[in-house]
Design brief:
The complex is a heterodimer. By secondary structure, chain A is mainly β. Chain A has four helices and 27 strands. Chain B is mostly helical. The chains are: A mainly beta, B mainly alpha.
């Protein structure tokens, strides 16, 4: 008996998932066509045109206008990653250069409520209590963020700590923690916290739009909800959890273009197998976007560039690839953490498994260098450096 | 037949199988339906060009890559080392045994097994769907099969490793 024969014997409910798909597809297409490209518009408009109230208030009209979005189009990428901009920097040598960098592993900790900080620079969890963030202050001391009821992120089956690379506010004074049914925002400067109930949402992403708005989303969401931290209102947003927000606008990375290679006549399918943008929040600063990407070989059977995962730095205006840092093959080997000056900061793991430490390094994509900044044994981390 | 009718006929004919395969990969019926729904929406958006190609392969790839994307986000999963007591020892319940055994594998191992041994893809095809090398597929399949045999000895006769 073959395993394939067993598929039809599983006792599962009959599905009607195909019903209404055509209409849903048409609605989505119409929505996307209404999105205007307008980098430079004010972020106030991001919150959308209709309001939902967490406090049960009636809907009220919101200002309408074009979304300040710049969507990176991946069709250029596969053709533009080549010898000249591929940087093979993730080598064992990187782990041999860690003697001079600090190890970001919590030692003695105090409770945040008893010992607040002016700014947080790094967050992770400890193995014995993965639901409690442990935050390193700019003063070099670790605090436990013991918010009552804080739990692991869950989609009902799998769980993970509530740490996301996007959780530090732009000024480093607050944490936005996604929870299964709420958003929790912790003020690091006084240890207080505020809970924004989102019943039934199973949140797993919290991304700062600006100092008073946070975009929240669930794992499978293609769009999110913007929470106004001051008024407690929540507004549907067309931006998903693969979006980064800056003073100049928002940039969405990947989305449903991830798999378009099958329908792209300009790129032969075998030459672009498995390639595409992976939809995570990119890092965006000064017109440069750094994001996650899977890349296929340019020619069938070729290993140059190798099939695998990596990080690309692109000109957000033109879409030109400035540099490609291969990290794979294999997912989860690079985490987009933040910025150190004008250089993107990445968390990097050894794909060979020889080294268990995550290297936190600044990627000088112009010069083709990785500069280690720190190391940690943590796997779920958030960075808001410099360390101080 | 119009474009819409063509899509709906195809989607209705495929939906049960797609959800079942997605379920074996995710172990979660709701998530399986979500994955299939998303893939079907994308297929509908480009059905005019997809209908004359290989829509089954395209949708399957979307489902698996979406799942890959999801597990990359989660990154850290909770697995148990031991199977639920008694589940794998009952005779004559092969589907239950398969479900329970797959649930003890990692996301990647499960995806590789489903692609190779349920969807009957070659190593090269599975590698393309998952966006990994053929070597990774072979290694993951080998590890997954070994683990499957270890945690569910009753499945040995069901699984024949292919080179």
């Amino acid at each position: 008996m073959k395993l394939s024969d067993l598929v039809d014997q599983l006792e599962l409910p009959e599905t009607e998932v195909a019903e209404g798909i055509w209409e849903a597809a048409r609605r989505r297409t119409r929505r996307r066509r209404t999105v205007a490209v307008g980098v430079g518009a004010t972020l106030v408009l991001v919150v959308g045109v209709s309001a939902l109230s967490l406090r049960g208030e009636p809907e009220r009209p919101r200002p309408a206008g074009p979304d300040p979005t710049s969507t990176v189009t991946p069709t250029r990428y596969a053709r533009e990653i080549d010898h000249s901009n591929t940087q093979r920097l993730l080598t064992p040598d990187l782990w041999a250069r860690l003697d001079a960098v600090p190890a970001l592993d919590p030692g003695a900790t105090t409770e945040l409520a008893d010992d607040p900080m002016t700014r947080g620079v790094f967050a992770t969890v400890e193995g014995d209590d993965p639901a409690v963030p442990v935050v390193l202050g700019v003063d070099g001391r670790w605090r436990r963020v013991s918010v009552p009821g804080l739990g692991l992120i869950s989609d009902g089956r799998y769980t993970s700590p509530p740490i996301r690379p996007t959780e530090f506010s732009p000024d480093g004074t607050r944490l936005a923690l996604p929870q299964p049914d709420s958003l929790v925002v912790v003020d690091l400067t006084d240890g207080s916290h505020r809970t924004y109930p989102m019943p039934g949402r199973f949140l797993s992403f919290a991304i700062w739009v600006d100092v008073s708005h946070v975009l929240v989303a669930s794992e499978a969401d293609t769009t999110g909800t913007v929470v106004d931290l001051d008024t407690r209102d929540a507004y549907p947003s067309r931006f998903g959890p693969n979006t980064a927000f800056t003073d100049d606008g928002a940039l969405t990375w990947g989305g449903d273009r991830l798999l378009d290679w099958d329908s792209r006549p300009d790129v032969p399918t075998p030459a672009n197998n498995g390639g595409g943008l992976n939809p995570y929040p990119p890092l965006v600063r000064d017109g440069i976007a750094v994001g996650d990407m899977a890349v296929g070989s340019r020619e069938l059977g070729s290993e140059d560039p190798p099939l695998g995962d990596g990080v690309v730095a692109v000109d957000a205006t033109t879409g030109d690839v400035l540099a490609y840092l291969p990290t794979g093959p294999g997912p989860g080997l690079a985490v987009l953490l933040g910025w150190q000056g004008d250089l993107p900061v990445l968390g990097l793991l050894d794909r060979t498994g020889e080294h268990s430490t995550m290297v936190i390094a600044a990627w000088d994509y112009r010069a083709g260098r990785l500069e280690p900044l720190a190391q940690t044994s943590g796997r779920v981390v958030a960075w808001n450096g410099p360390l101080g | 037949m119009g474009v819409r009718e063509s899509f709906e006929e195809w989607a209705r004919a495929r939906q049960q199988r797609l959800v079942r395969v997605a379920y074996l990969m995710t172990g979660d019926f709701q998530r399986a339906e979500d994955l299939v729904q998303e893939a079907l929406i994308r297929a509908a958006q480009r059905w005019d060009t997809l209908r004359d190609g290989q829509p089954d392969a395209w949708v399957r790839t979307v489902i698996f890559r979406e799942h890959v994307s999801w597990w990359r986000r989660v990154r850290r999963e909770t697995l148990t080392d031991r199977p639920p007591e008694g589940v794998l020892s009952r005779p004559g319940e092969a589907p239950v045994m398969v479900q329970a055994a797959l649930a003890l594998l990692t996301h990647k191992q499960r995806a590789v097994l489903v692609l190779r041994y349920i969807e009957d893809l070659s190593v090269a095809e599975a590698a393309r769907v998952l966006g990994v090398t053929e070597g990774t597929v072979k290694k993951q399949a080998s590890v997954a099969l070994a683990r499957l045999r270890e945690i569910a000895p009753g499945l040995e006769e069901l699984v024949e490793e292919r080179s």
